[in-house]
């Protein structure tokens, strides 16, 4: 009987030592994953805000720097301009200063799609009627692929 009791005590002592170590290890893994997601969300948010702020300011170079090559080409073609910065200027030319300010401050929220490489920025009401930015992420860098 003493022998069985000794094993139980040894097992209990092992769990008293191993249990907290496992909990600490699991907590570190969870914390690390949350930090990576938080950093990705921060980069996604920063790109969306820069895009809208630069668009409102009429900074064509700044806007185009936050877009994919395909998105820049599509914008230029839609506005019938040779370059993306020229297209940005044409896009916002009809807007008043107040409308540009509204556009620059129209960021609302950000979120990921399930794949993790696609991000979305929800946009408040604005004079260009942009409701959402779609972004593509690669190595922590996010670029606008299109807007709706």
In brief, what are we looking at here?
Helix content is about 60%, strand content about 20%. It is α+β, with helices and mostly antiparallel strands and about 150 residues long. Helix 1 packs antiparallel against helix 5 and helix 3 crosses helix 4.
Radius of gyration: 25 Å
Low-confidence stretches: 27-39
From the N-terminal CA to the C-terminal CA, the straight-line distance is: 75 Å
Separate helix tally: 5
Helical content class: 55-70%
Largest sheet: spatial strand order: 1-2-3-4
General form: elongated
Helix/strand order, N-terminal first: HHHHHEEEE
How many runs of DSSP E, i.e. beta strands? 4
Which structural category fits the helices and strands?
alpha+beta
Write down the overall mean pLDDT. Answer: 83
Strand content: 15-25%
Largest sheet: 4 strands, antiparallel
Describe the oligomeric state of these chains in a short phrase. single chain
Write structural notes for this entry.
With 148 residues, the protein is of the alpha+beta class. 61% of the residues lie in helices and 18% in strands. Strands 1-2-3-4 form a four-stranded antiparallel beta sheet. Strand 1 and strand 2 (118-123) form a beta hairpin. The longest helix has 56 residues, at 2-57. Residues 27-39 have low confidence and may be disordered.
Feature tags:
alpha+beta
Helices and strands in order:
Blueprint: H1 2-57, H2 60-65, H3 69-79, H4 84-92, H5 97-104, E1 107-112, E2 118-123, E3 132-138, E4 141-147
Antiparallel strand pairs: 1-2, 2-3, 3-4
Helix pairs in contact: 1-5, 3-4
